[in-house]
Amino acid sequence: MGKRLALSLSDDTHAQVKALAAEAGVSAHAWIVAAVEREAFRQLCEKTDEWWQAHPDEARAETAAYHRRQEWRGTSAA
Question: Which superkingdom is the protein from (predicted)?
Answer without folding.
Answer: Bacteria
